[in-house]
Amino acid sequence: MSGTRRRFFQDAAAFGAGLFGLSEALRAGTPGNIAQSPHENERARHHSPYGSYGPHQAQSKAAMRDHALSMVTPDVPDLPHEMDGGVKVFHLVGEPVKRKIAPYKTIDAWGYNGSCPGPTIQVQQGDRVRVVFENRLPESTSLHWHGLEIPIEQDGVPYISQKPVAPGEKYVYEFTVHQEGSFFYHAHSAMQEMMGQIGFFVAHPERDYKPPVDHDYGLILQEWAILPSNTVPNTAAMEFNWLTFNGVSAPMTTPLLARLGSRVRLRILNLGMDHHPVHLHGHQFVVTGTEGGRAPESTWCPMNTVLVGVAQVRVVEFEANYTGAWMIHCHLPHHMMNSMMDLMGDRQIQTADQTERKAMGQMESLARSVPFQHVHPSPVASNAESVPGFPQDAFMEMGMDEVVEKPETYGLPKNWSAGMMGMMTMVRVLPDKEYEAIMSKKRAVGPLAQDEHHHES
Asked: What is the pLDDT, as a whole number, of residue 454?
């Protein structure tokens, strides 16, 4: 390149930088409280899932953070660590766990550190990590770090990268996390996976993602085949009657809280036998990442339902613009309900001769045996009993608000729990006053006892 041509580009670059600096200076000098027109105010209410429409949104609280925002995994604890020099050391124990998946249903699962799913491991990109694993299961096992690029000796595949960890033995995994993203760990044995052995492994980036978020939540999707009057999952089954988010089935799932106007990230992990189309009500989101890391912004497109395949993670982000309790759930119809077989019998067989009187009798009998509090069904037509196929959803509206009460459910409408079943929870978008009231209740209660899952004695 000639000297003249080189100087031309240098001068052009300097001129462009000067214009950019001038525009930034003008923007910085613009008062932040200039009155907006009604049109501008209305436009400010409608955010794009990609980020804000205007510069006023650049004042997000997340943008003022100088540290990574930790992910919250409702109903599942984080795994603490200690430092050994420059190494983060985690202690993970594989063991049998009793897990309460519904107020009236406790199962015998396998998990880690008394939790099913296992506790969430959170690190920073670039961390050196050591996991001291102890096997308290009745059979050999191993740990696979799904999606992580690590030495083959740490990959956790029995007989290929390591010997299986025998009952009572320990094994040390150690590696440097050079990636960022939403990964997970699980037993590398198919049936042990179906017994519940999975947990999040989140590597936060060296520099925060853009646009930054104010809330970061994780959801683990699991399926269970549990025969009536049994507590042990049938891991050989191909059909499932209990569906859970983070080890619990609605309405026991904990609502996700979001301040009105905030940006929310949801990391959705699926390790079961079925793919799940996960749908969010009332908002549009963009898929910003997978189990492989952050997705290029050029791939983002607005949607409200994302298919989360087996062994996949889908990370979605959205602007929480509309107040309310917005449901998020798998949209497969049979995944939006809990098993009633071990409580009421198979309703399909009874549909032909089911009457309102008979159904009410079943509901009242059921309410005496499990913690349902509201057994008043929604109205049915006077000729309903003569309509082929009746009943379908009638007589199923049985609530248990008080039994599943927690700070996150404060202020929900009466009998809200009657509409919550299976693989679902809700995103509660709250104005500042209501949001702070619930957060105050959470602080007053303190860390809730994890009575829904505990070590097998």
From this structure: 60
Domain covering 81-335, topology: Immunoglobulin-like (2.60.40)
pLDDT digits (tens, 9 = 90+) for 287-305: 999 999 999 999 999 999 9
Q: How many other C-beta atoms lie within 10 A of the C-beta of residue 358?
A: 13
In the DSSP assignment, the letter for residue 303 is: B
CA 365 to chain centre: 34
347 phi, psi to nearest 5 deg = -70, -25
CA distance 391 to 352: 9
Q: 88 pairs with which residues across the strands?
A: 83, 129
Phi and psi for 318 in degrees, rounded to 5?
-155, 160
* Confidence bin at 372 (pLDDT 50/70/90): low
442 alpha-carbon distance from chain centroid:
19
Domain definitions of the chain by residue range: 81-335, 341-374+385-395
Residue 225 corresponds to which tokens in the numbers above?
């085949």
In this predicted model, what pLDDT tens digit does every residue of 189-224 receive, in sequence order?
A: 989 999 999 999 999 999 999 999 999 999 999 999
> What is the residue whose two structure tokens read 């599943």?
404
Residues 6+ apart with CB under 8 A from 398: 363, 366, 367, 372, 374, 375, 418
Distance CA 407, CA 436 (A): 11
Element (H, E) at 39: helix 38-45
For residue 109 the two structure tokens come to 């699962």
Residues 6+ apart with CB under 8 A from 410: 437, 438, 441
Q: What is the 3-state secondary structure (H, E, C) of 398-429?
A: CECCCCCCCHHHCCCCCCHHHHCCECEEEEEE
* CA gap 81, 420 in Å, rounded: 36
